[in-house]
Amino acid sequence: QKEVEQNSGPLSVPEGAIASLNCTYSDRGSQSFFWYRQYSGKSPELIMSIYSNGDKEDGRFTAQLNKASQYVSLLIRDSQPSDSATYLCAVKGGRGYSTLTFGKGTMLLVSP
Amino acid sequence: NAGVTQTPKFQVLKTGQSMTLQCAQDMNHNSMYWYRQDPGMGLRLIYYSASEGTTDKGEVPNGYNVSRLNKREFSLRLESAAPSQTSVYFCASSMDHGETQYFGPGTRLLVL
User: Fold this and answer.
1) Model confidence over A56-70: pLDDT tens digits?
2) Around Cβ B15, how many Cβ atoms within 10 Å?
3) Which member of A59, B43, B107, B108 has the lowest number of beta carbons within 10 Å of its beta carbon?
4) B93 sits in which H/E element
5) Are B77 and B34 a contacting pair, CB within 8 Å?
6) CA of A84 to nearest chain B CA: how many angstroms apart?
7) CA A55 – CA A57 distance, rounded (Å)
8) What is the pLDDT of residues B50-65, one digit of tens each?
9) Closest to B27 (Cα-Cα) out of B98, B102, B110
10) Residues of chain B in Cβ contact (below 8 Å) with chain A
């Protein structure tokens, strides 16, 4: 059974701070990793994908992947109140025909 | 370019009634998915269609059926609705199986 674990939160940070969201996964052969943002009452929208160990930056967002430790994280720099949402981690398993497994999400609250 | 569309947006059913949720995508994607999202449970995969002409069960298929009508459309049918099927249903699509998924706006279903 593939598992993707996230702290449910809420993670509270002040405006302008760095928010750090973490995700661990059980399938050591996992190949692809995704971060989605979901506002309350809305559908998930893709923020970033990462496939190789290391960091990947896109604007204020940085995804970090460490396959040896089986974790992936998302850093949000200069957090804004508009970043308040639930962040979902999704992992594609190691088998060739695997689907994505989603974590339950971490709620982020950014206070002005 | 509408992306992924779903109908209806909201639906109230009585126990035992049937209904079909419709999903269409205009991104020429090969793979399509149906998820349900419940508080505290995250996104759970009901069924998916890796390519036109194929469908497979996901994590929670009981009580549901699907039809991949053509490359664009993937419908989800509840034959005899139960209160346990009260949920938010999301359709998603991806260029190929296991790649980045793009979500529709969701259908909120209440079964009384």
Assistant:
1) 999 999 999 999 999
2) 11
3) A59
4) strand B87-94
5) no
6) 18
7) 7
8) 999 999 999 999 999 9
9) B102
10) 33, 40-43, 45, 48, 50, 58, 90, 97-106
